[in-house]
Amino acid sequence: MAGRRRRRTRTGTELSREAYVDAAVNLIENRGASVLSARTLAAAVGADASALYRHFTGVDDVVRAVADRMIGLGLDRWTPGSDWLESLAGLGRVLFAVYAQDFPRAGLAVAGRATGLPNELRAVELTLGLLRKGGFDDESAAKWFGAIADIALGQAMLQSAIVTLPAEIQDADKASWQTLSTRLPDDEHPHTQAAAPHLGEYMVQPSFELVLELMLKGLAASAP
């Protein structure tokens, strides 16, 4: 069995699930998720295209493994806080960093995927355990778990989508907010006119920390 799972490529590199995941992450980050195929992965690992199916059921199975790898990276960086809320905040921050900062193209491609693999199960168990420490029952913990996951990964997807835009488009979008006050019709948008300088500051930076703060306050207020 081990011989089937770990073979040598044409260059002598050991072929494994991890080698395919490494290759997939590199391909996505450098060329985009749409380039993934049995052929491109084979070229990246130095093996025949058919070798993929000794380790995965197909390319989508590789994508799920990439998603699970990213969850695992976040979990490995996480350090528990002094209480359940601080621990949840830290978990959200490390996952956001992996998806939105370290691997933004891969993060955008896989943040919406369910993996059913070990690292995702670790994250589910850990998060539910923290919510139970906060006093939530099983049903409430499950409900809040879904909301927490959506907030953290949704914010990561949004930021990943922004930072992977061409630099000139990012600059133009920022300039649109920063010059907003000069383009508003007189007296037609008084609230926007008054807030325009602040919009020019806040709309060009990630809102993750503010959203995280809102979520934590909601959890604290809802805790039994």
TrEMBL record:
The keyword 4Fe-4S belongs to this UniProt entry's keyword annotation: no
Domain of life where this protein originates: Bacteria
**Which Pfam families does the annotation name?**
TetR_C_1, TetR_N
Q: Give GO terms for biological process.
A: negative regulation of DNA-templated transcription
Q: Gene3D superfamilies, alphabetically? A: Homeodomain-like (1.10.10.60), Tetracycline Repressor, domain 2 (1.10.357.10)
Query: Per the database entry, where does the chain bind DNA?
Result: 37-56
Has UniProt tagged this entry with the keyword Cell inner membrane?
no
Assigned keywords, A-Z: DNA-binding, Transcription, Transcription regulation
Which SUPFAM superfamilies does the entry mention?
A: Homeodomain-like, Tetracyclin repressor-like, C-terminal domain
**Residues in HTH tetR-type domain copies:** 14-74
A GO molecular function held by the record? DNA binding
> This chain belongs to which protein, by name?
TetR family transcriptional regulator
Q: Which organism is it from?
A: Mycolicibacterium hodleri
Lineage, broadest ranks: Bacteria, Bacillati, Actinomycetota, Actinomycetes, Mycobacteriales
